[in-house]
Amino acid sequence: MDYIEGFKITDTAKLALHRVDREALMARVCQAYNHQFFVDGFFNADPHAGNLMVSIQDGICRPVLLDFGMTVQVTTARRKGYCRLVFQASSLDVLGAGHALKAVGYTNSQSASHPERDVEFFQFLMRDTGTRASQREDADEYFKKRKEQKLVDKAEGVDPNRYMKEVPPEMFFLFRMLGLIRGLCTTLEVKLPYLEIMADYAQKGLVLGYDRKLRATRLLSLPARPPLPLEVKLQRLLLSLCGSRKLLGVQVVLVRRGQMILNLAGGVRGATDPRPVDESTLFPILDLGNVLTALLLQVYMREGVARRGYETSLATLLPPALARVVPEAVRLKHLFSHSTGLPVGLPSSLLPSTLLNHEACLNLLAASFASASPLHPPGTKASQSLLDFGHLAAALLQETCNIPPPSLPQAFYDKVLRPLDLTGEVFLGGFKQGVNGNARSLAVVHNGFAAQLRPLMAMVGGGGGGAGGAINEGAEEGREEGKEGDKEDTSRPSSASMMERVLRHPTMAGVCPSLNALATARGLVFVMEALNGGTKLLSRRQQGLLRLVLARESCPLYGERQWGLGMQIGGDGVLGHEAFGGSACLLFPLAQCSLAITTNNLSLDKAGTREVVRVVCREVGLPMPSFMSEAAEV
Q1: Pick from 281, 284, 275, 245: which is nearest to 263 by CA?
Q2: CA-CA distance, 194 to 492, in Å (whole number)?
């Protein structure tokens, strides 16, 4: 036992006398307790003001933690579950956070029907600290939303009551720890990014959970032979981008005239998975799945689907429920070029369970097309609807080729991958470990959007800002999640719509052709190479039509874009697509080159991807695609 001289942490007079930075002091306290919980799995659940002192020695301020009488041990499995909960909540991944809650053993009366509401509550618990006034203001706003949701539940004939059914015992102590530290921050009028601090230690707890031998020891996977000049420049660039976190994991492959002249892989599989990315790691490629789906459609067209070719009326190819509400003037070419003019039928706020339910999505599409007027005449301009295309294409294939959505992965393999000898490189419609092949290296998408959006969300009052009532916070949290029979008002989390659009979980059961595809850059680049001749996937006429601009789009986020048959077309003749998260596949027809980049750190500006493309194009003498140029950047 040691004697340490100090004073109470809430003694504001002495804090001022010693010129203590209160924000830095409370940040250290938060770090200490988060390390205990998320890294050690053994924490002090009683951090009230009487158990915390401040020691000043040689001009250095240190927090002193006293009285470890109320300590709690958390099992390794549950500790990792809490780590995932906090990290996914920080990344605005509602689906992932919901899975983590289930893993730690938490359920309430609405968990099955509205898992996103559980996540909203925990995001509320982990929001930023602040003054008493700001905390109370945001708490009032939170419970106002709950009341509004309760009214909606009643109107729909749904039981609005919400109560705990299963709660792991250590969770109550976690609630206590969070509330007490928040109360200290309120007393000292300290504003801290509570969730960000927690997420740092949650990430550390997950990373350290991997055997040291499995963790990446270098940022790049280097070839055994001496590197070529282009490889040296790309290696330096990738080291810089991964080191600065512009990229997390990455693959870059360049093929010229069928020969692979560049094949680099680097970084790690995920923000919480420190294992290295290699050339065979599968990446979720998000809306690049639309390019693959469009290619599959065109392969079936070559076999006789759509007798009038791209001029075929779309309604004649769709199930009756959709055919009745799609105007006859909408042609198949308009579907490929995102210029149907039809209203958006699948909003970004869809729950994952709905998005992966094909029949439910078709019903939503039909209802939207029937109730809303067209946005514009077909073919006059493009307006990419990220989610609609995949389900419309799947409906077309089911109606004309008798291919149900669960069979899309096999159909894509039979018609595209097998002829190209790309087994195990690309999967359309999801991937199941041990079903599609042996256990594979899978990259995990990290929502880099979250860090970019959080300051904006705080400015507009959308989450992350201080909310709640300091020492009395526990009363509010008890009102939210009380004993069985207590009532609680619910509303959708503000972050849900963003992450339910962005972070698909491609290994889930279900098919969403727009988003849950996986590929290596090596697989993608040879798919693009096949579009430039040399294979019989498409006819020569189809290959020529790929270069025809069918519609133009003015996108608020990415500028002017030109669309052809399923891909963007640059003013320089480059074909391809850049996914909203940063992965890209490009075809340079005149140079007979293809380039593919896969990455797992989503970014609004996609600066890392574009920097890689810029260097490759400059060194090899290729034109920089106009849809990825400076003018197209955010």
Answers
A1: 281
A2: 21
Q: What is the rounded distance in angstroms from the CA atom of residue 236 to the CA atom of residue 608?
A: 13
User: Which of helix, strand or coil describes residue 589?
Assistant: coil
Beta-bridged to residue 426, according to DSSP, are 519
Q: How far apart are CA 91 and CA 104, in angstroms?
A: 19
pLDDT digits (tens, 9 = 90+) for 609-622: 999 999 999 999 99
- The percent of residues above 70 in pLDDT, for the chain, comes to 85
Q: For residues 326 and 315, is the Cβ–Cβ distance under 8 A?
A: yes
Q: Give pTM, 2 decimals.
A: 0.82
Helices (H), 156-228: 169-187, 194-207
Q: Are 64 and 55 within 8 A, CB to CB? A: yes
The kind and range of the H/E element at 229 are helix 229-243
Q: Which two tokens stand for residue 333?
A: 């070419």
Number of neighbouring beta carbons within 10 Å of residue 217 = 8
Residue 337's closest CA among 41, 575, 538? 575
Can you tell me the distance from the alpha carbon of 553 to that of 473, in angstroms, rounded to the nearest whole number? Answer: 49
Residue 198 to residue 236: CA distance in whole angstroms: 33
The C-alpha atoms of residue 238 and residue 276 are separated, in whole angstroms, by 14
Contact 138, 123 (CB under 8 A): no
CA-based max dimension of the chain: 88
Q: What is the distance between the alpha carbons of residues 308 and 301, in angstroms, rounded to a whole number? A: 10
pLDDT tens digits, 409-445? 889 999 999 999 988 899 887 655 433 444 567 777 7
Cα distances (angstroms) measured from residue 600 to each of 130, 165, 181, 248: 33, 36, 34, 6
C-beta of residue 253 within 8 angstroms of C-beta of residue 262: yes
- Rounded distance between C-alpha atoms, residue 408 and residue 304, angstroms: 18
CA distances in angstroms from 131 to 21, 134, 139, listed in the order given: 16, 5, 12
The single residue listed with the structure tokens 């250590």 is: 170
What's the token pair of residue 232? 């040296």
Question: 364-396 as b/e, with b when 16 or more CB fall inside 10 Å?
Answer: bbbebbeeeeeeeebbebbbbbbbbbbbbbbbb
CA dihedral for 502, 505, 506, 512, sign (positive or negative): negative
Q: Would you say 26 and 74 are in contact if contact means Cβ atoms under 8 Å apart?
A: no
Q: Alpha-carbon Rg of the chain, whole angstroms?
A: 27
Q: Are 563 and 551 in contact (CB under 8 A)?
A: yes
Distance, CA of 18 to CA of 61 (rounded, Å): 9
Strand partners, 560: 554
**Residue 426 token pair:** 């690309």
For residue 473, name the pLDDT band (cuts at 50, 70, 90).
very low
Rounded to 10 degrees, the C-alpha dihedral 114/116/117/120 comes to 180
Contact assessment for residue 564 and residue 384, using Cβ atoms and an 8 Å cutoff = no
Asked if residue 461 has pLDDT above 80, the reply is: no
